[in-house]
Amino acid sequence: MHGLMQDFPLLVHRVLDHAARWHGTRSILSRSVEGPLHRTDYASVNRRARALASACERRLAIGKGAIVATMAWNTWRHIEIWYGVMGLGAIVHTLNPRLFKEQLTYIVNHAEDRWIFTDLTFVPLLEELQDSIPDIKGYIILTDEAHMPDTALRNSICYETLIAGGDEEYTWPELDENTACGLCYTSGTTGHPKGVLYSHRSNVLHGLMCALGDAMALSSRDAAMPVVPMFHANAWSMAFSAPIAGASLVLPGPKLDGPSIYEMLDQGRVTISAAVPTVWLMLLNHLEKNGELRLPHLDRVVIGGSACPEAIMKAFVENYGSDVIHAWGMTEMSPIGSLGVISGEAAKLSQKEWWTLKLKQGRPPFMVDMKITDDAGNVLPHDGHTFGRLKVKGAAVARSYYKGEGLAAFDADGWFDTGDVATIDEYGYMQITDRAKDVIKSGGEWISSIDLENIALSCTGIQEAAAIGLPHPKWDERPLLVVVRKQEAVITKADVMRHLEGRVPKWWMPDDVAFVDEIPHTATGKISKMELRATFKSYRFPES
Amino acid sequence: MHGLMQDFPLLVHRVLDHAARWHGTRSILSRSVEGPLHRTDYASVNRRARALASACERRLAIGKGAIVATMAWNTWRHIEIWYGVMGLGAIVHTLNPRLFKEQLTYIVNHAEDRWIFTDLTFVPLLEELQDSIPDIKGYIILTDEAHMPDTALRNSICYETLIAGGDEEYTWPELDENTACGLCYTSGTTGHPKGVLYSHRSNVLHGLMCALGDAMALSSRDAAMPVVPMFHANAWSMAFSAPIAGASLVLPGPKLDGPSIYEMLDQGRVTISAAVPTVWLMLLNHLEKNGELRLPHLDRVVIGGSACPEAIMKAFVENYGSDVIHAWGMTEMSPIGSLGVISGEAAKLSQKEWWTLKLKQGRPPFMVDMKITDDAGNVLPHDGHTFGRLKVKGAAVARSYYKGEGLAAFDADGWFDTGDVATIDEYGYMQITDRAKDVIKSGGEWISSIDLENIALSCTGIQEAAAIGLPHPKWDERPLLVVVRKQEAVITKADVMRHLEGRVPKWWMPDDVAFVDEIPHTATGKISKMELRATFKSYRFPES
User: Fold this and answer.
1) What ipTM was assigned to the predicted interfaces of this complex?
2) Among the partner residues B5, B15, B217, nearest to A198 by beta-carbon distance
3) Interacting residues of A75 by C-beta distance below 8 A, sequence separation 6+
């Protein structure tokens, strides 16, 4: 027997409708790509999103199921495109302009994008790409007629002119809540990028989840600034969660440097903001240089994208009185998987224990579940030290990639294998300890390459360190520690080993230390273990 | 094209699973019906809910779609029954023991209940009823063997013995999220009570909605005490929202008097609690009598069920430092429709304006929408003074009553007519001004009977007042004010009219004042306008 409740599909444009009707005057402050700050509100953005939807249908023949790309910063216009295009039943494909040109070309063609909405910033890049993406019917440039560039782009259209011809009273079509509405590619270290296809339902549930008390705790008293780009996995949900909560939005546009971010925090009286560690480091440097600057409004700082250095987190808490929330997620998770908000049970801990938890990646909110398993799939305990492959499921977790690619990551039992290795402690705090492909498997036990590296880095004289597993006749794999010395440092294998002794379990001790001049890195600045393993392919451990 | 996200049905037992896995040691403190306080946690309650589900299936042959009634206070056992019975795919029908016996008999038979879970308190009542509810197969008494009563109930079963025979590792069946899981009857002033049939999806979405920042703002740092009974429309969602948020639960069992509620607030370090004004009045009286008592933990007080007197709200804010949240809803809305949390835009108001908003019934959270219309269905403005019929829709709003009754309340366009008349102001705050059937329709304009009564009550010498509309040849209806004088008060029609002048719009002035010894009331203590209109059926206004 079914319940007798109203049919209320979870559609993303209902989020904007709610904000427009019940929080219509809450502001949306943006740094425009043209330069000046721009202020609007939810009621206006809703009208313009509807106008855009009608213009897309009538003028560009964009209909249900069409795929439309954006290459744009976080501004009010990008918000309008999200809600307008998703609302008409089409799919917004956010392009990351930082990808290599070959990747962008591959992605646009693979996704079968038909139109690209682009900020002025990216017109030159798209001019270069346009011959390799011939199925694009035209380019909508996010500006007004006064700022339209002289461009070689085929069929370039002025965004403000397009929207001016639309109908602000446009009625959203009825849609099934499982209709696709967003597409974002994730680039692994191997193979082509793979697309994650979000649905209206998954985005709305993810937006609700992220607004909850142990996630971002958003309310209509907040001003939320996603510094994390909307092309970076849904801006960590803030573009959905803020209007759900009636929080105002502050959007930093193209400028992510310290002084610019400070200006937006100050002008927008931002209470919560989300960004990667690098952005926060730039802000903190700016604040330190200008000792009189404070962050009186900033209550919560969400940090994710990569593990956050302790110094950044402590600076916010101890120098500026802002709480920090370490978050973890993946494009495949929409992207939030866990947040390091201190739970009620953990609230009684000492300051030191509190920081230990804070530095972990946090706990899953309702509608995400996670487990750690060994290679055979056996569930491992939540004891804070056993580590295993991290697997997740949830209302906003992918069940396959676009066009059926990369199926190996999706278990038959409905769990997505994140490719990460993690521990989970008794309070439910998860900590990433390694990538599964980098963990060192010695005699059936796992050694965290990241832990080894971090402990090695605390040794005087070491500039950079990388731990890799190399074949071993008896133990399967044993760790090799690859080290770059600090300039003019004199440090030997014996020094390194002495430093590690007592700091890591005995059986984690590297079988050898190799000194090199340089460790190879990927395009995004991470250590390329793949390349390193290739370099040391013929290496043999000394006889012990 | 559909999104490629995991299938994650919104099922209520996922809520308990989440709490058990990630907030397993968060406590559930109850006053037991047997007497002593009882402490358990989410992990235990989850194991017992599963054991109960398996015992229901195996021993009582309760399967998917079966309807099982509860007549029980808020305790951990009632929580176990909710999650256990809903989780196995059956439906929990909460019976309100305060209804008339005839109504209870009607409801149990109409719902086709098959088993009743009952607290010890209600065994005598059910013994009286059992012959009139012959289809009940048996009664599960919520206690252990030591406390089992000597009862005439047919097939009475000890709850603790039942659960002891169940399997704590029971696996929940797979269910469609639209599966019915809860049934609650609402008794109007006319006709039989009508059933509202909740689904897993509607309960989970409602639970999420109520946990949001502008609703109850729940987190795992909270201890939530629903004083409002679980048989009173889902305990205003707290039994779902608290485990969603990881908040601990405090359950007051059978004792709702001031000292008992204070004890639970204190022992459970309750941070948020919800109840009707009467309960809060009893608590405040107890606190006033014991001047040294404080409420150091209580951060938020949710008040609903009927309009809350200003004195109660101010006492919490001004004397005890707790915020008050005026809430409004209906059984048909699961039940929350709006909450009087001060929004970001309204936060800049003066103290006086703030209180004006606080006394209103609040704003709808995301997933509820509301509008006010005139009799022809035209939407009326949000200006704070135009009032119209209040209509709602949302993810947890009924689309019909059980067995298709009372269809008139459900518009063809998907809005549920609440039967209330309300205003909505520029900030989105809704205020109930009348019941639609009591509003006085004069020359096409509406006069609020409640406003007239409240203003009349502020006149010295008036004990009670009721305004009703009576037929008028020219204006359709005109107001008659029916007044009970205070003992020994000497007050005339002219005195009353002088008091009203300038306090109400000119055309609201009653055409006559009738003095009576007594005003008729309903069983729940409200003025019976229906009876009053019958009394004055032959009354004619004086010629003006």
Assistant:
1) 0.92
2) B5
3) A30, A31, A32, A33, A38, A119, A142, A251, A253
